[in-house]
Amino acid sequence: GAQYENIKVDVVGAKKNVGLISLNRPKALNALCKDLFVELGKAVKDFDADDKIATIIITGNEKAFAAGADIKEMQNNTYSSNVKAGFLQEWEDISNCGKPIIAAVNGFALGGGCELAMLCDIIYAGEKAKFGQPEINIGTIPGAGGTQRLPRYVGKSKAMEIVLSGNFVDAHEAEKMGLVSKVFPVEKLLEETIKLAERIGTHSPLVVKLAKQAVNQAYETTLKSGLLYEKSSFYGTFATEDRKEGMTAFVEKRAPNFKNN
Ligand code: CAA
To answer: What EC class is this (predicted)?
Structure first.
């Protein structure tokens, strides 16, 4: 596979169908420098294109998932350099991935680290995880979705509190507010995340992709057009072999054999 400097890439799970990306700049608490994001974007794209991979996991280490955008790297940016370079624009590439991405968060997920976790589809956390948007402490505001995704996930009052105070929330609070889906002991987090990825991997990849797209519509549109989108996509599953196989297997009381078709 490709050689990376700021991330590690592995294929894991009993069926070797889970793509694991570990952010790997431990000395900088996995601060998300440009090179790291370019590598991350490539790794996600490659896993998305690989038929053997069902689900992708992004994780960090026990101290940090990621402590944000790289402050040292952007310290001397200017308004015009940001505009000209499209600073942080490549981050949205992650959201073009058709396959589910699960963030497995131990330690700090701050600023861009929290925003990266929110770019993923599901967030699992270790019980020592800390989430926050501390940009306000350094004289700026979130720039990769923190002011937009956070209120959609946790509501206005909590999002305002997090963004305006710069205070951190721990894993259990983050779970209570709906940012995190489940919390595990630190050393169990990765194996539990892989279990979820494998479970998703037992389903039809084609239908998993449609389901992900449909849930994401809920964050893009009105209820009425979202419901219309869902209905069309649901109807559309009836044009697939896998829908036929799934229902036939149920009626015949056997396990389905999905063909991604
Ligand atoms: N960028 C660059 N370097 C960072 C970093 C970041 N976001 N976060 C940590 N580091 C570096 C530190 O500079 C330090 O490097 P040196 O050893 O070379 O000095 C190393 O990582 C270890 O960090 P600390 O010594 O600070 O570790 P700590 O345990 O005392 O504190 C922390 C941990 C509370 C997370 C603290 O590092 C911190 O506050 N980090 C910055 C968090 C932050 O403000 N993030 C938002 C960034 S802005 C952003 O993300 C914009 C956006 O929306 C996209």
So the answer is: lyase
